[in-house]
Amino acid sequence: MRDADAVAAAVGSAAKAFGGMDCLVNNASAIAMTGTLDTPVKRLDLMLAVNLRATFVCSQACIPHLRKAANPHILTLSPPPNMHPRWFKGHLAYTMAKYGMSMCTLGMAEELRADSIAVNSLWPRTTIATAAIEVNFPAAILGASRKPAIVADAAYAILNRDSRQATGNFYIDETVLREEGVTDFEQYAVSPGTPLHTDLFLD
Questions:
Q1: Of 5, 23, 108, 197, whose CA is between 20 and 30 Å from 86?
Q2: Pick from 28, 181, 187, 203: which is nearest to 125 by CA?
Q3: Structural domain boundaries, residue 85
Q4: Is residue 114 part of a domain?
Q5: For position 32, which CATH number holds?
Q6: Quick one: CA dihedral 108, 146, 149, 133, positive or negative?
Q7: How many CA atoms lie within 13 A of 20 on its CB side?
Q8: Torsions phi, psi of 127, nearest 5?
Q9: pLDDT tens-place string over residues 89-124
Q10: Based on the structure, what is the number of domains in the chain?
């Protein structure tokens, strides 16, 4: 993700192998929940490179192919911008890296509107049971999380929406699925019946 030439080569190979490109999902992310003095510069550089820079570089490489698609989408796993200081205190570097991804959504949605390329972000309402949660948070939060399938299902729904209409949005997974008619959310719970833990950046 940090090698722009490798990204360009991979995108070109994929487009050739599959006869084009319909969507890009910017899912790669690095995390460190540390304060300013406890964040090594190398860790800052890693988060900015894998989160912000890779979102920009991958999108840049895919846009020429997406312009040829019938219903092209760029979907980035990043939060709705929330400028409350609580989301910067304690993990400033991580917040900057994730919000950088969100800025790509804001800017590219407008820039690519004339090309009918939808550019949106998706974020979970609850914490998701991934390695990032397991490593960086207490075990109780992992048990109060949902399975990754809820994000995958929401992403699938978004990518099937009309790219000329659904762009520039900061979607929340549960809201998307409710719009699609889903009512059973216990199926996604790691521990059904356990109160869910709200994810970062959401009030």
A1: 108
A2: 203
A3: 4-188
A4: yes
A5: 3.40.50.720
A6: positive
A7: 10
A8: -65, 150
A9: 999 999 999 999 999 999 999 999 999 999 999 999
A10: 1
